[in-house]
Fold these 2 entries.
Entry 1:
Amino acid sequence: METIENKILEKIKSTFRVDGVVQRERRIWITIESERLVKICQWLKSEGFVHLSAISVTDWPEEDCYEITYHLWSYNEKILLTVKTKIDRDNPLIDSVVPIWSNNAQIHERELHELFGVKFHGNPDLSQLFLEDWEGPPPFRKDFDWREYLQKEVFDPKNLREQGYYDKTK
Amino acid sequence: MAVKRMVKRSKKATVMRKLIKSIWVFNWFNSCGFAELVPVVGSRWDMERFGMIITGTPRHADVLFIAGYQTLKSVKRAQLIYQQMAEPRVVLALGACTMTGGVYWDSYNTIKRLEDYLPVTMYIPGCPPRPEAVFEACDKIFTHVKELQ
Amino acid sequence: MIKQNNTIENLFTSTPDIDGYDFYFGPTHPGSGNFGVKLKLHGERIESAKADPGYLHRGFEKLMEYRIPIQNSMLSDRLCVLEPLGWNLVHAEAVDELMGNDVPERAKYIRVIMAELSRIQSHIIWYGVFSIATGFDTGFKIAFGYRDYVLDLFEMITGGRVYPAGYICPGGVRRDLPEGTEEKILKVLDKINEMIDFEEKGNPVLEARTKGIGILKLEDAIRLGATGPVLRASGMRSDVRIEEPYEVYDRFDFDIPVRLEGDAYARYYLGIDEMIESIKIIKQALKQLPGGDYITPSLKKIKLAKKLPEGEVYVRNEVARGEAAIYMVSNGTEKPYRTKVRGPDFLHMIPVLEFLLKGAHIADIPAIYWSLNVCPADMDR
């Protein structure tokens, strides 16, 4: 029996060459390369995926890449489609989707630039959002351990209560 | 005939007894304090019957309530507010996050010990503390002022 | 790593011109909460607005990577202090779907009752704060007086007035409803009905201050990413509870109120309509409440941490402010590898607010700002 999710996935696969899977009712996940992102997203928006729910970045240090995911929702078909791409970890650079979903995408990308260090080419404003005068590395990367940073800078080993933080590190 | 004063008090004690009769409060609440300090103003635990009101500016206030965790960005503003208050002034810190860091003890952006940044007079424990605890703290201020020598 | 920068001049980032001036509607203003907006004015009209967030940033998403799911469910009620049980439910659903848990029927009904009570409590706060910001002080006192009935109910069921200590946990709920809860809930709902009768009478000052102010058209609302009551007041009938029913919402008979004008008055009265629908849902749920377990038997003793299977999920819910979502990735260990939290206020407070404040008067700022039902903790995380 052809469900709506399978029909939409077949339509995407026949227009562009992508791998995709239907996870359950109302969830489709597809994987593409980062160069074709803007073209595919423009086609998806004209097909009814007008609402950008979130943009997120996952850090995989063993595979030496960042994985960016775009979660799109369609009000007509009531289906959530997720687009996943991978970019390089040491020099993260990708095209911005601000021309497609205007200020909604701009504020998500500004937050990810501050927390992960990803540069979005074409975003009009990538200034600091949450932090003020922060000069360290991007805080959400996997190699910036918060508990070690606090042991060095903030906690005091001579304080009786805070000595306990130094014994058990996880 | 002139009436002689029977009890000898220091100058600070006389001044404090005249000024701290009804406390005017400036609220600098972060989110967690909002949920339990606003009922203190509301109609169930009414604080106006004790003479406490909320002022709009720190220049009129006697007491600064710091309710909840502070981040590096907001503690600078709290210091600016404290500098604008007139003597005698008291700082009350509410919640577990001001004492030890609380639930966010391993966050890179919150303050773990508030006493490094502001001179705190009294801590009120709880997460968040009940409104009755706030009244007990104000009662302790009054008792302390009465017993000053 | 952090510079010391304590001067007041650094709070403004541009030099003012001769005819206009800068105005900082800042975090210590009693009408703004912990959030600042930098405005450029020309006389009494606003030319541009720039939001200044970040006073409450704790880094939630990485804090959740250091803890196991049962500890995370205690942390998840602090995501938005004005509605803790709603966010508890989103997190519990995400972990349930990753682990493949089978939640019993009684637990689902209890979860729906707690989430709807929390939505009523959040709308009462919205009503109270909106009234005092536009000059109607009686509304503030009445709202916070009636809210305490709901908080006493939470204390009886979960143990905490404001934070329920992770009551809705992965697998079900932590403990069963005590004796006599159902009668108490019905009495509290009668009291809330009294308050709604008072609210519906209206107030001429409130109407004059909010009718025709801050109009948001439908295509702008969709383009800027608004969800929840802000989108429904502009004419679109969309709600996650009917588009994608989660828990047992498909068994109830309720309506979704929609208004067409899109101004502050429409958003404000939509909150009152939604409270009436929530009361209907709770009454139907109490009638249909079945017996049985309140948590899956395999998770009853939560002493050992279980390994989460590999995979990723995206769960959407409807909290009082709009659409809330969690994206969770797991790589086979006991702790989640990455949790992304999407809150409705991140979009409402920065793009939508900057768009609505352009061209408005200074005196309309509280009406526009509080009609969007903001929660700064949800935005900063």
Entry 2:
Amino acid sequence: MAVKSPARKAATEDRLRVVGTSLPKVDAVAKVTGRTRFADDLFLPRMLHCRMLRSTTPHAEIVSIDTQRAEEHPGVVAVLVGRDLPTPYGILPVSQDEHALCIDKVRFIGDPVAAVAAIDEETAFEACELIEVEYAPLDSVVDIEDALDGDDPAIHPYGDAHNVHKAIALEFGDVEAGLAEADLVQEDLLFYEGNTHLPMEQHAALADYRPDDRLTLWSSTQTPHYVHRALATVLEMAPSRIRVIATPNGGGFGGKSDPFNHEIVVAELSRRTGRPVKICLNREEVFYCHRGRHPTLMWIKTGFKQDGSITGMHFRSFLDGGAYGSYGVASTYYTGALQTVTYPVAAYKFEGLRVFTNKPPCGPKRGHGTPQPRFALEVHIDKAAEKLGLDPARMRLDHLVEPDSVTANYLKIGSMGLGACIERVVAESGWNDRYGKLPEGKGLGLACGSYISGAGLPIYWNNMPHSGVQLKLDRGGGVTVFCGSTEIGQGSDSVLAYVVAEVLGINPFEIDIVTADTSLTPVDLGSYSSRVTLMTGNAALQAAERARELLVRSVAEKWDVPGVRVAMADGQVFDVQDPDCAMTFAEAVVLAESKFGTIGTVGSYTPPRSPGRYRGAGVGPSPAYSYSATVAEVSVDVDTGETHVDDVWIAHDIGQAINPVVAIGQVEGSVYMGLGEALMEEMTYRGNRNIVHHHPSMLEYKSPTTHEMCRVHTYLIEDPDPNGPFGAKEVGQGPLLPIPPAIVNGVYDAVGARVDEVPVTPQKVLAALKRRAKQEEPREGPKKAPEFGWPEAIQVPPPWAGGDGRAIDERREIGGGGVRT
Amino acid sequence: MRRPYPAGRLGFMAPTSKAIEAGANVSLELRVNGEPHAVSVPVHKTLLEVLREDIGLTGTKHGCELGECGTCTVLVDGQPVLSCLALPAALGGRDVTTVEGLESANGLHPVQQTFVELGAAQCGYCTPGFVLAAKALLDDNPQPSRAEIETALGGNLCRCTGYLKIYEAVELAAARIRGEPAQPTREMLYGG
């Protein structure tokens, strides 16, 4: 029997043919030719242009807004103010604290107060300048310490304390007892400066309302489903009359995951004018949208045995949330959730709080709330290893969380490839021969990380799938995949094509992909928390297997053979025992359509239930955790304090790469973004009370150019996870996490100075070196943590202390936790 | 002739003496991708805006509109120019090339093809600018070193890729333009 092709041979032997192969992305040609239509590339007949007027003061009551001159300005068609859209909204059900336009009060410089629709953008600009706003200034809240001193007016009327949005205290086991039995108790205070996504594409949205009460919104959003819900709420329209289409995002990184005021504003302006209305934010406004990395101060105290095992850990985080809730409650929980998934922690206590300040709101940026604590933990362990006289790589390798285990805080670990990752980067970087032995100014640093492959629970409580896929097969052999997922450059459209192509034995480039359209596609919750490959992949797999089943039954019946003999590859359907017995895929679809009627199948995915039952257990669970290990080689100029990263070796436990070259691109992009956060990126403000953004421009907000980027050596570690499609886990965010601590640990190896704060600027390095020269502690970083009256911790016994996932105090136990993301 | 490639761009192109009282429209003919386009636009309207809004060439993107990010790069007489800072009124009869002008009857330009093969376009938003800047480099220097590529692309920001797949794509395209039968290495496609 002749085997006709490698693909057929693979199909016969049940091996992967598409998955695991480095193919182009299905949208690559459109992108390199400029054909991809981003939101601002859309133009409709009669389209109006929108501009928004923004607050010029950080904290103030709005006394009056006079829009008359703007309304009379030639070319202006409509003007909106806050009272026109009175219903609040927000991404989390517990933080519905935003209005499309401020009504009574502004909370940061850049908060929008009015909007204009006009015949062109320039007219809208002019009209905004004609709007007169009278403010009665309030004292502003500038940072974490200022928020906690209680002297300033409240930014919001809600929260766990005055200007404290959220305060959390959880304890898993007896941490004091754990610390008491330690050989070393290490205590550190570290700070991670805020930074922003800086997507190359400025946010844009186009709304088109029709008089039969139908609204369509195109927007550069990562979460069309949540935008759909927010529009229905604020516009008080039935969701069935609203269609949200997420255009391909020109970069997101978490910055386009909230429903935004400008999206609601253009929708309302279109409803009022009966004409399409578009807005494209300018770069300065993108900085005001923000939702980026929370500036986070962290205190960590850990007990270690002489062998490096952890007897107990107490972790505190203080997050500067900016002016609105956004994802902040989830972000706060995330700063305490994943400390336990890499090295076993026998007892763990987490206290975290998020304050409101008069700055653009913080939210989810790549790694959402976990890069800050991971930085703290990995630097902390590096210091402990030195004191214990252990090699930092060996110490980690000797104490790894077991696969198929449950952590102190009830996170269920599946596959766990961190050991293989560490061994690989240690070998490739020459760690054992070079660490601690390089000349002054050159250093190696090692760090690890882990991230979720999607969150176990949805943002709003429901029992429905997190991801759905519909598949349509037509008699010409065409296959169309419909899915709500949003292409933000990570390759989500391609993942759908590869998975379906693998199952149906067809060419992925002949599959049509329709995504991110709330009228055409089943819900996928959005492109955030690294959930898309695992969840849409599983949904697509199920839909494709159901379609395959229909084809196999039809073909098997015609050939009068058992279904197990029918295989698919190369666009052919054939008999594995008689390869000459074959038909085209299209012929098989015709057979199936003749037998069953129109061929359409569905698939959906819901994550498994997590064992945690305490309040707060909703943040942290995931179907699978990815792991990464990094060695960074750095050069530090002791005269200028400048740090340059020369090489990064990074191994990432991905389970199974659906497309290796795309996965490598995600790793390299994560390294790049981690490098920027480690060395230069900072979202900071000037002014004592008048909180003005330091540099809302791409020139002044320093991000790595070609000249700052390092060499990256990427290793994909493949150990398939049972919960992933073909074993796949996430890759888009996790590889960022070890980069900042690896660089900081490398700086210490290079010059013997500790910078307990990112970004590691030349000034901070020089300050630490100066102290070293004066025989003082060679450290630069935060000096003290603010005082706060923490709530009594919810006590949850860990699994090894007989716990069942519930808190001891039944009254506090609210099944599954009140907060999710 | 090989010459050092500037990291910056020709940048702002000051209006010529023909210009121009503020607010007035100017009628002019722009040569874009070999085609003549007669437009009448306000004198301060940028090349970026005219290309996108008046000629319908939305392949040229924008990231800052202040000359900081390189996203809006187009070629003027083969040299990279920031279209957000260039005024059509000052261009005279020079040839403008946008990403739409890169394809030929033979298909994609080699740089476009290698971007496809190596996943050098992630979100794809900065890609037209990078592809054009890379084309200008390779037209000038068919065998650039990695350092020369870094310099030539130093004015273009990308937030997705970390630039590394872009370098590899430019090097691979350069080899093919020189006539070598170059293919991606296993390490490029599958890692170490």
